[in-house]
């Protein structure tokens, strides 16, 4: 089974449509959305409609911190611009869409795979996995061999060897990574809707659980149109600039 791994969509319909079309062309059998479906971007209702349609056909979907804030109210630590978009987003969504966000689980397990937005260690705390220390903490908290997450808007891959040693791999778009059965891996595909690694192309990854191969992808899309949508909706211009600059 080839699973397309998409995270941090952030209400960016242009990026989502481009990644879904690319994944279909790569032969995806199933889709997993690991949180932050909304927030920052200008088209939350359309993005949620798309994800809900995929969920009805068996897609895996877990909750992100922006999804939680939209459904139940932002936490005190969320910065002012993000809070502004959350309030606007709530007004754009239908009751059934808000209910969908509210009902999403924090984690989902399938065989030897775990899906979570942030860290598998206390996922409700929304810890950012920024290096080996946080990656090891997340992997130790899970019994799964493969942990798929998001929250960090740049692609990353961590490995915990069978002897406990940690390592990091710099994923290259389009290059297949062979997954060793005896190791444990933390896969962060990068953001579909708001990449922050200096490259404005959308990110997603594909995992083949039969061949045990993982591939990261970058997908060009009309980021200018997505940025103009943010501006047209009167949202903070910083979120439009991030789409253009990839930061």
TrEMBL record:
<protein>
    <submittedName>
        <fullName>Metallophosphoesterase family protein</fullName>
    </submittedName>
</protein>
<dbReference type="GO" id="GO:0005737">
    <property type="term" value="C:cytoplasm"/>
</dbReference>
<dbReference type="InterPro" id="IPR050126">
    <property type="entry name" value="Ap4A_hydrolase"/>
</dbReference>
<dbReference type="GO" id="GO:0016791">
    <property type="term" value="F:phosphatase activity"/>
</dbReference>
<feature type="domain" description="Calcineurin-like phosphoesterase">
    <location>
        <begin position="1"/>
        <end position="208"/>
    </location>
</feature>
<dbReference type="InterPro" id="IPR029052">
    <property type="entry name" value="Metallo-depent_PP-like"/>
</dbReference>
<dbReference type="InterPro" id="IPR011152">
    <property type="entry name" value="Pesterase_MJ0912"/>
</dbReference>
<dbReference type="Pfam" id="PF12850">
    <property type="entry name" value="Metallophos_2"/>
</dbReference>
<comment type="similarity">
    <text>Belongs to the metallophosphoesterase superfamily. YfcE family.</text>
</comment>
<dbReference type="InterPro" id="IPR024654">
    <property type="entry name" value="Calcineurin-like_PHP_lpxH"/>
</dbReference>
